[in-house]
Amino acid sequence: MRAWTIDHSAPDHLALAEHPDPEPGPGQALIEVAAFSLNYGEAVGVVPHGENGTVPGWDAAGVVVRAAADGSGPAVGTRVVTLGPGGAWAELRAVDTDWIGTLPEGVDLGEASTLPVAAGSALRGLRRLGPILGRRVLVTGAGSGVGRYTLQLAARGGAHVIALTTDPAKEETLRALGAHEVVVADRGASGGAWLVERLSDGPVHGVIDMVGGAIRVAAYRTVAPGGTLIAMGHSSGAAETFPHGDFAGPLGHDRAITSFFLLHDGAGIGADLTWLAGLLASGGLDAGVGWRGPWTGGAEALAALAEGKVPGKAVLDLPSAT
Amino acid sequence: MRAWTIDHSAPDHLALAEHPDPEPGPGQALIEVAAFSLNYGEAVGVVPHGENGTVPGWDAAGVVVRAAADGSGPAVGTRVVTLGPGGAWAELRAVDTDWIGTLPEGVDLGEASTLPVAAGSALRGLRRLGPILGRRVLVTGAGSGVGRYTLQLAARGGAHVIALTTDPAKEETLRALGAHEVVVADRGASGGAWLVERLSDGPVHGVIDMVGGAIRVAAYRTVAPGGTLIAMGHSSGAAETFPHGDFAGPLGHDRAITSFFLLHDGAGIGADLTWLAGLLASGGLDAGVGWRGPWTGGAEALAALAEGKVPGKAVLDLPSAT
Amino acid sequence: MRAWTIDHSAPDHLALAEHPDPEPGPGQALIEVAAFSLNYGEAVGVVPHGENGTVPGWDAAGVVVRAAADGSGPAVGTRVVTLGPGGAWAELRAVDTDWIGTLPEGVDLGEASTLPVAAGSALRGLRRLGPILGRRVLVTGAGSGVGRYTLQLAARGGAHVIALTTDPAKEETLRALGAHEVVVADRGASGGAWLVERLSDGPVHGVIDMVGGAIRVAAYRTVAPGGTLIAMGHSSGAAETFPHGDFAGPLGHDRAITSFFLLHDGAGIGADLTWLAGLLASGGLDAGVGWRGPWTGGAEALAALAEGKVPGKAVLDLPSAT
Amino acid sequence: MRAWTIDHSAPDHLALAEHPDPEPGPGQALIEVAAFSLNYGEAVGVVPHGENGTVPGWDAAGVVVRAAADGSGPAVGTRVVTLGPGGAWAELRAVDTDWIGTLPEGVDLGEASTLPVAAGSALRGLRRLGPILGRRVLVTGAGSGVGRYTLQLAARGGAHVIALTTDPAKEETLRALGAHEVVVADRGASGGAWLVERLSDGPVHGVIDMVGGAIRVAAYRTVAPGGTLIAMGHSSGAAETFPHGDFAGPLGHDRAITSFFLLHDGAGIGADLTWLAGLLASGGLDAGVGWRGPWTGGAEALAALAEGKVPGKAVLDLPSAT
């Protein structure tokens, strides 16, 4: 098969090359990939640092061409969306059946390919906050791929949703996606007090933070006792410096920060992907595709993504796409 | 009655003065105080910043002289240990009956007075870690009042206990209190790698951190997926700077830091104090009193505590002590 | 003041009589009651077994006529909805400020009075299930006062909602309230297999059970591993007999049943009532009042409720209602 | 290899016969079995109802003869203890490396073989109760294999341990294993009141119930708000009939019963088995072997176990035991 493979001798660390077909394990189905989506973490983390000759890629949608040998998972011909630790940017992918969602009719394979990491992280991150019905949830980096899905799913879950962005032009879009409030942050904001002041109705129950750095420090100050900040993204590339006392109890008991990584929390994600795909089909989710083109343009798309030039998700189609 | 009261015109911000007797609410008992203990947070936080004329003090032991009007709590004459948001450093104290533990015969009132904040925080903090039986628990600032009780209770709870201290002379004591391993930290340690390397058997399930600053940053690096660091003390007085990526998922999913403050988690603490007092009585806990004297020496004891010159808990006795 | 008081010499165990005004504690506001609602548990549990001369009643709405002495809670003149362990069926009520919700303009006091036990239990019970977004929730006794609010809130929380009722005529109403599926149970149903078969898409994540008896046994069989059945109501009046093996692990690990009682879970309920009242105001909740009349008809309304003749909530208005 | 296989034409449903060697998957090691232990659930559940020709057996200890192909797990020659859904009663066993514990020197392989189901269930069940340090835990069927390990581990975890047994002769043994109180139940006991009365210090935080039936109903009555009963064993063979109201909130809010099955909760059990084996080595656990003999006596041992004639664990040795 052909696949994008890590090649550190290439200018973009990537080459579209011949690669041996994947060999499915007993609990894996073989998928003919029709489209895949790109993630920021792949652009800045996986590709520059991956092992030469490996095939990256977390998200792919396509059609089952060989069912799993152990009888689990979907039958040949089923349209599916898949998550895995790699291997998505290729004509064929072997994937654990527990990590496969099935697609209803009418869902575009390219749109479906945006779901696994972006909407899967949004859903699992929100669940890690505990019950959100009737509670306040803050989403930072709200205009990112994960951020957009988080807004939509938090609103669907009955939360009062507050979106934080540095781009005032996005306010209308963020409200349309479900934000009840939009806070526009000054890019140079520091300390935590400014954000506490901007949230006029007081602390929040949960934060999904896509940014890190000074934004994370400020967002932590807004968390109520019993609440949680999920450190899901790190797009600022900055360290977090918490002033002495920010973790002290009198500021609020039992306020947590926790790390998050979907690929270590993937058990049962296939069923979640099936549910998310159903929302796409019924118009209950907006995939927010901001770049779409043939898969031969993969390196170009990845560069645009790393530079923050893709307003939403980047999707690449294979010629076989049906 | 006489009481230590906040007086910012005095050199130590404290004066032993006449004060109106406390008026118990319907769910409060009135206690004749026999002894109280001092806490580092009182020395550096409460006394310098408290309101003039108020009586500080979280921990006091004594005898009930008036039972609660609503019928709850212990009868007149009962020997008790009490926690409250203030009012302990006085001849009389009014205290919620839910925050009163009863003492078995043979427990010294001065030793009992060390329990509420120090052992109460240790017990509640360990419970916040979830089940610890057969799991690894790291205690930083292990030689402090809270640290010593945490070592003892974590060992009693079946954990494998690792004590972190900057004082190599304390190693034997910390082992005697229950530490299975003692790590002596260089005071100038920075970054997180050094501590990870010192824990040769890998990550820990939980951390009770009394220090903050660079120690907290290092300790967080040792937490296993699903584990928790409790930010209980802040003796370093330093900010925490986490390098970019320390919260990133690939380093370990679902690793949490959480704030802690016993006074906001006090529901039912009376029953816990009764249990802890039973351990004192049976020799199952070492109170570790490092300073003891008449209550007229309160300001002097507090200054010694703030300077780190008290090896353990400081206890002050009132003349009425029985 | 006048109040409905327990009087076991009266035919309905109740008399509308003179009663001393309540004396608010320091953290209590005094409310002039405008309307109260009745609950099934009051009809069958509290009134027949209460102490002579006491004033029952959990739910009341009205206006603050004296603010709390400790400065907490709403000011005089605020329209509020209140929960308490008793005292609602009276012209005046003293109530803890933590148990008081405030009402937006435009919310009818009678409709608001239906919220505390019915919608409060629904909200707290659903939260006890953990995250429900994208998960399946079964509600038994779905046509009851609590059941109706549970359907609405579970749908708002993004769950797939399955309503169980014995009355086929209610199907349309239950769907309008948010049920995605309605299962009509045969009143004589026994064993658990029948319900498992009716849920064609497999087990559920959570159950809010208002019925008990054979329905509870059947509903427990539908719970997935990691899921929970909340035993919230007991309207069947029947015992639960679980066949040998129903709790055995091979049927599904970690499937829980738990007891529930709002009055023991009331901390912070005031903020929840404020949020629920906001939903009423915006049309996001249907109060479902099935009986409304002057409070002098209280005994009659209660008898109707106990006999199952009230289709929804029963609300009684005091002459002072504004 | 030779193995005990299900044979429903045999009087005991078992035959010691030739069987194809197991073929390890990529994440499985191959073990030469030295000893295995029998469990009550195998005697009454697996063997009578298993599929003809399959090899039963959850617990086996032995030596690795082929390491896992994927590089995980112990090396050839390592002494290990293993858990799996079957296959233990044979000369060779293929087992997932995540389900393998390693043995320190000095641990007898037969004693180690008692750990997986019995001590693993005890440890995981106790963890499901949440923190137990300083809390009261009730163990029913305390003299059973799982019960004995639960007593020991609950005591090690700092709980106050109450053992329930029907055999007054066991009291001394149960106390030696860690029980602080022993309650001897009348075999004909019914209802729940009797047990509540016997626990003079009030409700318990957790129950590990090995018995079911009327004992389970009584034990549930003793659970405090926030507490949990783990339905771990079902030796009574009886249904549970809870009187109307036993789940009602006024009896106590948030009291849970939950199903338990170790084989569905096995992730990471290998590390737990290593820890448990360390306790065996240091004398911190008593394996309580009540039957030991050559594996050719397997059917006889199983029959004795099913009839309740084995006082503790039954262990069978293979000739190859080293």
What does this molecule look like?
Four copies of one chain form a homotetramer. With 322 residues, the first copy, chain A, is α/β, with parallel strands linked by helices. Chain A has helices spanning 40-49, 109-112, 115-128, 145-156, 171-177, 193-198, 213-221, 269-281, 298-306, and strands at 2-6, 14-18, 28-38, 59-66, 79-83, 92-96, 100-102, 136-140, 160-165, 181-184, 204-209, 223-231, 240-242, 256-259, 289-294, 313-317. The first copy, chain A, folds into two domains: 2-114 and 287-317, Medium-chain alcohol dehydrogenases, catalytic domain (Quinone Oxidoreductase, Chain A, domain 1, Alpha-Beta Complex); 119-262, NAD(P)-binding Rossmann-like Domain (Rossmann fold). Chain A has nine helices and 16 strands. In chain A, strands 3, 4, 5, 6, 7, 15 and 16 form a seven-stranded mixed sheet that branches. Chain A has a six-stranded parallel sheet with strand order 10-9-8-11-12-14, sandwiched between helices. In chain A, strands 1-2 form a two-stranded antiparallel sheet. Chain A is globular and about 60 Å long. Chain A starts with a strand and ends in a 5-residue tail after the last strand. Chains in contact: A-B, A-C, B-D, C-D. Chains C and D meet through strand 12, strand 13 and strand 14 of C and strand 12, strand 13 and strand 14 of D. Strand 14 (256-259) of chain C pairs antiparallel with strand 14 (256-259) of chain D, so a sheet runs across the interface. Chains A, B, C, D: It comes from Streptomyces radicis. Chains A, B, C, D: This is Alcohol dehydrogenase. Chains A, B, C, D: Pfam families: ADH_N, ADH_zinc_N. Chains A, B, C, D: GO terms for molecular function: oxidoreductase activity. Chains A, B, C, D: Residues 9-316 form the Enoyl reductase (ER) domain.
